[in-house]
Specification:
homodimer; 105 residues; alpha+beta; three-stranded antiparallel β-sheet; DNA-binding
DNA sequence: CTTTGACACCTAGCATAACTAGGTATACCA
DNA sequence: TGGTATACCTAGTTATGCTAGGTGTCAAAG
């Protein structure tokens, strides 16, 4: 994606993806690419620290999956994370409508 | 506004406001507040450096107004700035549609 | 006539978060 | 055996909005 545009909006994306079911980091990257039809093709160095940050904030919790030889850290939203998702959604709607109103589109 | 949400989108707002007519920095702040219905109430420390940056990039040019005892630096978009506005607009549309698609709203 | 607040400009330094660029390791296919 | 995809990690860079301070003009209120 382009530059700094994503700043402050990534949390919303991650919480939205994980609200539809637990997933590990690499799968989140693929889900973002798929859902956005290729617009969000984000590097691991973006996603992994963001997931850690959200877990530190208590919005996600993670467990190591054991049903595979390849280790996977499975993330899912906490109740606090689900609540955060709805507030982030309304904030996002207000934000993009404010932009559209300002730009006149 | 909230946190980092604006990062990467301020240039679009400034170019859009100034595309509707030259204005000085303080007036730009008021225009943003008015157009966004209060959503974008941005401090001078955000606007002035941003205007300087856009001028450095050749997207705006400025002149000091002389018809007032109070000095005002009047900004207006250059041709390059007008072109940048249209590309930023299409990028913004792609961006917010990608977010909405990803979030599912 | 002094003070307060709106107007109008400026910038050094801070904070945040996405990204770069490196690393480790497993699995599978040619 | 080598390459590619999967899957994780993090130190450091970078970009930019914002904080917090500064200067000065002007008008209205006290």
């Amino acid at each position: 994606m382009v530059g700094e545009a994503l700043k402050g909006h990534l949390d919303l994306l991650l919480l939205a993806v994980l609200a539809d079911g637990p997933a590990h980091g690499y799968a989140v990257i693929e889900a973002l690419r798929a859902r956005s039809k290729g617009a969000f093709d984000l590097p691991e160095g973006t996603i992994y620290p963001a997931l850690h940050r959200l877990e530190d904030q208590g919005l996600l919790k993670s467990t190591w999956s054991e049903d595979s030889a390849r280790r996977k850290r499975i993330y899912q939203p906490t109740p606090k994370g689900q609540q955060a998702l709805t507030t982030r959604q309304t904030e996002w709607k207000q934000f993009y409508k404010a932009i559209n109103a300002t730009v006149g589109i």
